[in-house]
Amino acid sequence: MGTGNQTWVREFILLGLSSDWDTRVSLFVLFLIMYLVAVLGNFLIVLLIRLDSRLHTPMYFFLTNLSLVDVSYATSIVPQMLAHLLAEHKGIPFVSCAAQLFFSLGWGGIEFALLAVMAYDRYVAVCDPLRYSVIMHGGLCAKLATTSWVSGSVNSLMQTVITFQLPMCTNKYIDHISCELLAVVRLACVDTSSNEIAIMVSSIVLLMTPFCLVLLSYIQIISTILKIHSTEGRKKAFHTCASHLTVVVLCYGMAIFTYIQPRSSPSALQEKLISLFYAVLTPLLNPLIYSIRNKEVKGSWQKLLGQFSGLTSKLAT
């Protein structure tokens, strides 16, 4: 493809994590296991929420959305990364690269919006518990979830369009594990100031705005918890938010570090590790965090396993 003296590449080459064959095989096995466990863990969380009527609440409705987003995000990056670990030629077509950027950026944006929505849900649960079921009704939950999905998708579409309108000339080597936004923008052979401004604006809208909402929600939550006189009451209120707060710190911290200052971005290795964190580690950790730190989920697991054990005993006899 070409226009005037500028040429657009048809294929990009992802340099990946290592050129050493033994290292690549070891990484393939490691990331394959982590990916499969992450997918299984998130689907088990979704299945558990569907099967246990006690978990049919707004919090677990949003957790279902979060689990589906985590699996989708990982799937937009990890399978292609695994294939490239065993391949000699690490090419990805122009259209596939654009699609990968759109989906990975979209799922990431949706996740940050969902975390802000979940913070509001926890705020209502702790600060206004008597009106919780009235405020967090099914209609509002559906609207909040839809807004999260739409905002992340629209931002991703805009970023993908303006990024892949840039002429890449003969630059086709992406020093990354995937078609990541900043890595692709750096390939352009023209001034990218407008793209960097767009990244900054979207970072403020889709990262800092939800982050500020999360921060305000937790300031109110902490203030309310401190006013509770009984130690048991404080513990119960804190455990209501502990899982979500842990996930928020993990997700928002890395994203703000990566995208809020494109010009002073991390090194290529740091960017790869950050992408791996979101693509592999976050989807793996979220089910564990919500299972280990959440009494309701642990109780549901025990109930489900007890029913399964009883069923197998009957079948055996």
Automatic annotation (TrEMBL):
- Nucleotide-binding among keywords: no
Q: What is this protein called?
A: Olfactory receptor
Q: In which broad location class does this protein mainly occur, judging by the first location in its UniProt entry?
A: membrane
Signal peptide (residue range): none
Q: How does it sit in the membrane?
A: Multi-pass membrane protein
Concerning PANTHER family, the annotation shows: OLFACTORY RECEPTOR
Q: Name one GO cellular component term.
A: plasma membrane
Q: Where in the cell is it found?
A: Cell membrane
Gene Ontology molecular function:
G protein-coupled receptor activity; olfactory receptor activity
Q: Which PROSITE patterns match?
A: G_PROTEIN_RECEP_F1_1, G_PROTEIN_RECEP_F1_2
